[in-house]
Structures are given as C-alpha cells and as structure tokens.
Amino acid sequence: MQLTVKRFEELSAAELYEIYRVRVAVFVVEQHCTYQEVDEADRHCWHVFLHDENGIAAYCRVIDPGITFPEASIGRVLATHRWQGLGTRIVREGLKVAQERMHADTVHIEAQTYARKLYEHLGFTQVSDEFLEDGMAGSSDRCNI
User: What are the two backbone dihedrals, phi and then psi, of residue 50, each rounded to the nearest 5 degrees?
Assistant: First the structure.
C-alpha cells in the first residue's frame, strides 16, 4: 500500500478522477446522500490517500485553516476495504499532515455518529451536540495534536 500526499494543483487528472470516483461511490451512492460532494474546499487542502494497483483503498483531505473551520480540519474520510485498519491509518496520516505541513496544534472534524469510536480512539473529543447533515447523524469533534 503506497501513501500519497498532494495539494490539489499537484494531482494528476487520473488521481483526481480516482479521488472523486471513490468519494462519490462511498458518500453519495453507498450512503444515499445527495449533496455537493465536489466542493471548493478541494482546492485548499492536502489530499491524502493509500492506494495499490487496484486504486484508492483509503482517503481523507486535510483542509487549510479558515476554509471550513478556523483551525485545520479533516474531511471526506473513507476506506474502501472495511475492518482492515485503513480508516485508522488514513486519519493518523491526516493528523500527521496537519501537524507537519500546516503546523496545526488542533484539528477539527465533523464525524458521522457511527464512526465516533474510531475518532475517539485517535484522540478526538466531541465538542457539539449531535446534528443531522445530509441525512446523516454527526457531531463536531476536535483533536489536540
């Protein structure tokens, strides 16, 4: 499994296509959420993904401070192969990117409720009441790194 970390402008057309293909497959098709999956934040983040000869196995984006939240944030976390530790690994890589490349000491995430234990295990604490977004229950969480 190879790790790739790139800014939007560094991505090849093939990499960007694969990122959007897998994100739409998971968040729009699999989770039945109709929303603007491709957004302006994509231009202002580090795209972090694990891939092999079959494509992207795990992905997240680490968004610059001030774009979606005052602090750096992680979003669009996914693993195409479930229960293999890839979700944990990709979030850890995202936290490392936030710390090393953005010099962040706090990272924000809006987590779906079903994934709360994963984020708590990685040091995130819930900082908001639960809410519905795009038909999915979630909450705002922060992690000090």
Answer: -105, 130
> Please, is 46 exposed, middle or buried when counting C-beta atoms within 10 Å of its C-beta (0-12, 13-18, 19+)?
buried
Q: What is the pLDDT of residue 36?
A: 63
DSSP, res 143: E
Lowest-pLDDT choice from 13-27, 61-75, 128-142: 128-142
Joined tokens for residue 72:
């750096």
The answer to whether the CB of 86 falls within 8 A of the CB of 49 is no
pTM metric for this prediction: 0.85
Cα dihedral 24, 98, 91, 4 sign? positive
With a cut of 60, say whether residue 88 has pLDDT above it: yes
Q: Where are the beta strands (DSSP E) in 8-135?
A: 45-52, 55-63, 72-79, 106-112, 125-126, 131-133
Q: If 0-12 CB within 10 Å is exposed, 13-18 middle and 19+ buried, where does residue 126 land?
A: middle
* DSSP 8-state assignment for residue 64: P
